[in-house]
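User: Hello! My lab partner asked me to get a predicted holo structure for this protein. The small molecule is zinc ion, SMILES included with the sequence. Please write out the structure tokens.
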Amino acid sequence: MSRVNTVLGPIAPEELGLVAVHEHIGYGMPGSELDTQWWKTPEQRYEETVPKLRRFHQYGGGTFVDATGICNGRDIDYYKSISAKTGVHIVACTGFVGGDTALRFFAEASVDYLMRQFVHEITVGIGDTASLAGIIKVGVSRGFRMKELDLRIYRAAARAALLTGVPIFTHLAVDVEPALAVFTEEGLPLDRVLFGHADDGVSQGRVNEKAILGGGGRIGFDTFGYDLELPDPPFWGRHRRERLEHFLRVVRDGHVDQVLASADANCSPLGWPGVQGHTVNYIYEQLIPDLRDEGIAEATIHRIFVENPADFLTLRH
Ligand SMILES: [Zn+2]
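Assistant: Hello! Below are the structure tokens for the protein in complex with zinc ion.
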């Protein structure tokens, strides 16, 4: 039977509904949860998070994919309580945001060791929660160049994806050639990989869209809402109109079944203030209305936010 792993158990792909495919319940650099300046009680985090997910659910949102991964504040028991409270399905990931956020213990591990860690979290459970990871996170370290550790993680992820059927999503779509080489060498079909953040302000000019799309990969416009129009935009921000036009170009060029969109927002940031005024609900409050204004058909919107993510997240055997 077709299924997708959520923190409250496997569900049928038809139950996902609209999917926010790259989001964060709370993201911070490794160790930030121990910082006395930033430490938040479970109650504070809960208060910051639940209203955002309730609103997402009220708008019709079905599933929230948490892209936080190991070492960056992932907290499965907490996710389970939030999912039960709000009715939003939460898909948790195994893997790492990038080699430079993997703690030394994992940074020194072999491909085989990392692969077994990912497979365990997908098939047995994350820690003692019995929740199964539904996707694998990998990423490019700072500097826009794949490092040896990044490549080791990509290779371990490719092997774990082939063994378990879960897909992979990436932090950054830059320096994609070495990543494509690893996936090809391992025999992983590229439609199992979402190359994320192809739309952010700092990656422009560094994303080989042709190689990603030509190889059958999926492309993530998943930093929607980090707009330079915000009162205090982040360094990876971009003009709203420019991002939207970039997205529309790819959609209209015949790649609609390869695109996925999300907001990469933090419900309750860990160890940093986050970006004020930006939430997962940008998808409903700005992005979908923008697409309608541009004459994008409802069927296409459904394809991008419902059908594509269901196809991507369904365990493939
Ligand atoms: Zn992210």
